[in-house]
Specification:
- By secondary structure, the protein is α+β, with helices and mostly antiparallel strands.
- It folds into 3 domains: about 90 residues, Double Stranded RNA Binding Domain, CATH 3.30.160.390; about 80 residues, DNA polymerase, domain 1 (Orthogonal Bundle), CATH 1.10.150; about 160 residues, hpI Integrase, Chain A.
- About 50% of the residues lie in helices and about 10% in strands.
- It has a 5-stranded mixed beta sheet.
- β6 and β7 form a beta hairpin.
- α3 packs antiparallel against α4, α7 packs antiparallel against α8 and α8 packs antiparallel against α10.
Length: about 375
């Protein structure tokens, strides 16, 4: 909507009751306007185009910034735009870590990373990078700064190293974007990680299964069952659509955008999984997401439900990803080859599946016992 933006009008402007915000554009100064949120916050705006790209900048909030001061600021910015400059773009040496974080999420993560990765990286950004480094310019960050932040998480080496990897990627992008010439995170020494090897025993699986049967929301319980039965990753299960399953042939075709390796995966399903899917399909129309959220999309996490089931089953020190480890570990301990298990898990590198080699002592003993026939001849 348009109106003459002046002190009297802005003062009387009321918050919207039927939307999150309302935009009002000035009838005097082109592209100058004000945004009023449902919470009553009034912010002056300026719209403009640079290189045929639309830009919108916040000039300041009312009443801290008066109407006249905001209008003068808008006119000044428009003058720079006429000269071919983008006033909202800072010189490279003035870009802050806050802006780099925003650029990373918008220009890289949203296009390259899976939803789970984005969620984890947002947590690192919000809990560590923004509060501790955000006010500094990208160009001023030193290896000592990165090392200090990394060392502050020494008690959780895995978390510390993931944070360091994120920072290294951000600074690699900063080099490409001409924010600085080097990567201060590159030579920071990572902590030794002792991989957590946790998988549920048969007795623990029985407790887990009984707790799932008692869980109030059986659609969520089925999602956890599917994780345990198939060895799939959490987001592969939560984002699954019925069109991906061929129950007659017993196949699950996972689209590339939802697999870790960004490759189409065709996974054969065991009888346990097929029975579960058959039961689920009989209870719905067999279209859309297996685990909808009621808003036209799918569930994005099972963490709360998982913790509730663990508490009911009296199990501790278990992560949701350990269901995948459990799937693989029991297969290997029952004689399945690491190569076949790796294919079921969607591993592209044999070394990734090697972590389960400790689960096959009987298979290894059988190979070792072949020596008995040799010594019996001697």
């Amino acid at each position: 909507m348009k109106a003459p933006i002046n002190d009297s009008y802005v003062k009387k402007l009321q918050p919207p009751t039927d939307s999150r915000y309302v935009l009002v554009w000035d009838t005097k100064t082109p592209s100058f306007g004000i945004c009023v949120t449902a919470g009553g916050v009034k912010t002056f705006l300026l719209d403009y185009y640079v290189d045929r790209r639309h830009r919108r900048v916040k000039l300041g909030r009312y009443p801290a910034l008066s109407v006249q001061a905001a209008r003068d600021k808008a006119v000044k910015w428009q003058g720079k735009v006429i000269d071919g400059k983008d006033p909202n773009v800072k010189p490279p040496d003035q870009v802050t870590m806050l802006q780099l974080a925003d650029d990373y999420l918008r220009e890289h993560a949203s296009k390259k990373n899976r939803a789970g990765t984005i969620r984890n990286n947002k947590r690192y950004l919000d809990n560590h990078i923004r509060p501790k480094l955000g006010r500094y310019t990208v160009a001023s960050i030193t290896e000592r700064d990165i090392n200090r932040l990394h060392k502050s998480l020494e008690a959780t080496p895995y978390e510390a190293n993931r944070l360091l990897s994120l920072l290294s990627k951000m600074f690699s992008l900063a080099i490409a974007w001409k924010y600085r010439p080097d990567n201060p995170a590159r030579h920071v020494e990572r902590f030794d990680e002792h991989r957590k090897e946790r998988w549920l025993s048969k007795e623990e699986l029985a407790l887990f299964s009984a707790a799932l049967n008692q869980y109030p929301n059986q659609n969520v319980a089925d999602a956890l069952r599917l994780l345990a039965y198939s060895g799939a990753r959490e987001m592969e299960v939560l984002g699954a659509d019925w069109s991906e399953f061929d129950l007659e042939r017993g196949m699950w075709t996972k689209p590339s955008h939802r697999t870790k390796e960004r490759k189409l995966e065709r996974t054969p399903l065991n009888d346990l999984t097929l029975a579960l899917l058959g039961k689920m399909r009989s209870q719905c129309d067999g279209t859309g997401y297996l685990f909808p959220n009621g808003n036209g999309s799918h569930r994005t996490t099972l963490q709360k439900a998982f913790q509730g089931v663990l508490k009911s089953a009296k199990l501790s020190d278990v992560r949701i990803h350990d269901l995948r480890h459990t799937f693989a570990s029991h297969l290997v301990s029952n004689g399945a080859s690491l190569e076949l298990v790796g294919k079921l898990l969607g591993h592209t590198q044999a070394s990734t599946t090697q972590r389960y080699s400790h689960c096959a002592p009987e298979s290894l003993r059988a190979v070792s016992n072949q020596l008995c026939s040799v010594f019996s001849v001697v």
